[in-house]
Amino acid sequence: MNFKILFFTLISLQTLLPYEVLSQINFNREANIIVLKTNGDTLKNPWAGGFNSVQFSEIDLNLDGIKDLFVFDRTGNRISTFINAGTPNQVTYKHDPTFTSLFPEGLHDWVLLRDYNCDGKMDIFTYSSGGMAAYRNTSTTQLSFVLDTSLIYSNFIPNYVNLYISPSDIPAIDDIDGDGDLDILTFSILGARVEYHKNLSMEKYGTCDSLDFELSNSCWGYFTEKFSTNGVTLYDTCSSNVPNPQKNGSNKKHSGSTLFTLDVDANNSKELVLGDISFNNFTMLTNSDVSPNLNKSSITAQDSLFPKNNNNSIAVDIDVFPAGFYLDVNNDNIKDLIAAPNCNSGCKNSTNVLYYNNNNATNQPDFNLTTNAFLQDGMIEVGEGAIPIFFDYNADGLMDIIVGNYGIYDPSLSSSFYISSLWLYENMGTVNSPYYQLITNDYLNISTMNLDIAGSMPTLGVHPTFGDLDNDNDLDMILGDYNGKIHYFKNSGGAGNPAIFTLSSPNFLGIDVGNDAAPLLHDLDKDGLIDLIIGKRTGTFSYYRNIGTASSPSFTFVTDSLGKAITKRTVDFNGKSNPVIIDSAGTTILFSGSKNGYLYKFGNIDGNLTGNFSVDSTYLNIWEGESSNIAVADITNDGNLDMLIGNYSGGVAFYKGNSIPPPIGIDEKIIINEFSIYPNPTNGLITINFGNNKLKNASIQVIDLLGKTLLNQKITAQKTTLNLTNYAKGIYLVKFSNEIGSKVYKVVKE
């Protein structure tokens, strides 16, 4: 057997048998693995995680005086942060996820960053209980926030009532009257008119550091939004205006709009731009208020082609429910326009973020459409629901990446409106230094196969797994889908050759797990035959044991609730489990992503397939967005498993495996001197010489790769011997601790 076939066989065995972990199971998010487009161009932020319905704000994340970028995706309530290099006249954002954890937990629906207390630091406005909350930016040496109020109130004359904002809307938060504090424009809860909530901070206190609002006008601009179109009726009399703002004069309830403001004609009054839930365009309303205090707003014209007429551009076209954001993204001190969809699902989810560069002035813009995939064109972006898996498709001994998806939204498709496919990224690097290039976004032409037999159309939510089902030394494919079905593709390529897949059995064995089938081929009971474990929408795992032979598998149903394991919390509507199984020093571990986005680790599996597995429901506190899907493999040949995490935003995050797991709580300070362990590797006995380390309150621990302490004994002598004879082969941590610190070494048991 030549080296290529031998190496491929080893890779195949790695897929067929449990992963043998050669290092600790711990991961750090990194972005240094290069990914190329099909044309060879390098993706700038490949692992940023994708965009669906995103909202943009400026903020200085690293406190260097340069405004960086905060992006909030309402599909999954996911935060992305980008550091701005600040190069003049260039878009120079670099994804840096380390800042996401510094924002308050639980932000949802919409988030806008504005400086409401004029201290030069961006504060947070976000949806909360039929209104909005505010967090004050308290950063000094590091980004930090404190809750100012969980619900902002406004004086509705004579009563203070929570300032209502729909969770589906986005309000305009801007200085409408030019007095230096932030006011709010939002649609009334009852009708199609915009309320103006004036901030009285300057009038009452002479400063802009308060959130003291009064409903100043219940029909700002004197217009009414039409319900048959996204236009407006001008010159509404608004007979029920202040002082009786609760009465609106319209019994039609507002259904959903986005608002943002800007000055397009340099007259100091703010124009209002509307995006409607049922339409694809913006409508800009011209404000002709030229009064000294800007308190006589009057909308006198509307433009449904905005920003086409300002000046040399084209109209926004985002299929449905556009939202606009006005901020400087190219470091020329002039605000630009970003437009993106504002829906939770059923709308454009790729090439859907429009960037209009402003070539003139913030208060008299000249917009030019620059790209319809702002920042997206630098990411792995597969629409909705990224499902990554490692697979050496060309048998060159390097792990490639295949990314399935729920689908890319296409309104021209009258049946499902989504196209689901497999995206193939080939590993073009080396065993130690991988880098990837997109080969095709429709590997095997899955998007054209009518795998949805009942609907006689292509399926969605494709989730592949690989294993040798016919004992011919190449890896076959089982493909799960959103209908809960699985499909068998036979590989006829042969050992050491690129895979050649042919659909052998759609709706394989008639298996149906309900919805969102996430299959895994794995010898769970360790009898030498590949079994079938399937994750599903309920969050549990179905187990089909192989009672056939290596070349002729026969799967028999065992349970639809393996180990009573579940990835659904009591507050979740579903769980969406997707299994990955590895072995760590002889111990089987089941990992899974989930609908809620957290990673799950299940243990107590070996010899307990009919019992209850143990669970860690927030493994390493990793969270990359809802509908997480994970894949693991050692792609850098350093003995550590690396991890990919796909999310509902259609992107993938890369986590590098490292050598020290955080659960052990190691404090690696130089006050702990080096000590020696020998022999290492060992067949059983090891000797430890603690050298010059103090032994007051000293102890030694042996810890497995899961962080489980296997031995813990006090140390009273400078040299001791430990017996590891009865331990399984693998890598263990030996941790020495005394009253001033601790230090850890790795020991290999052969």
Name a few traits of the molecule.
mainly beta; six-stranded mixed beta sheet; 750 residues
Give an overview in words.
The protein contains two helices and 54 strands. The protein is an all-beta fold. The strands form 13 sheets. Strands 3, 28, 29, 30, 31 and 32 form a six-stranded mixed β-sheet that branches. The chain is globular.
Short description:
The protein has 750 residues and is mainly β. The protein is built from two helices and 54 strands.
The total strand number stands at: 54
The span between the termini is 27 Å
Overall average residue pLDDT:
90
Q: Helix tally?
A: 2
Lay out the secondary structure.
Blueprint: H1 3-16, E1 19-20, E2 27-30, E3 35-36, E4 54-59, E5 68-73, E6 78-84, E7 93-95, E8 111-114, E9 123-128, E10 131-137, E11 145-149, E12 153-155, E13 160-162, E14 172-174, E15 183-187, E16 194-199, H2 201-205, E17 213-217, E18 223-225, E19 232-234, E20 257-262, E21 271-276, E22 282-287, E23 299-306, E24 322-327, E25 336-341, E26 354-358, E27 367-371, E28 384-391, E29 400-409, E30 418-419, E31 422-427, E32 436-440, E33 463-467, E34 476-480, E35 486-491, E36 501-505, E37 518-522, E38 531-535, E39 541-546, E40 555-559, E41 578-584, E42 587-593, E43 600-603, E44 614-616, E45 629-633, E46 642-646, E47 652-657, E48 676-678, E49 685-689, E50 699-703, E51 709-714, E52 719-723, E53 730-738, E54 741-749
Parallel strand pairs: 1-41, 3-32, 12-17
Antiparallel strand pairs: 2-47, 4-5, 5-6, 6-7, 8-9, 9-10, 10-11, 12-13, 14-15, 15-16, 16-17, 18-19, 20-21, 21-22, 22-23, 24-25, 25-26, 26-27, 28-29, 29-30, 29-31, 31-32, 33-34, 34-35, 35-36, 37-38, 38-39, 39-40, 41-42, 42-43, 43-44, 45-46, 46-47, 48-49, 49-52, 50-51, 50-53, 53-54
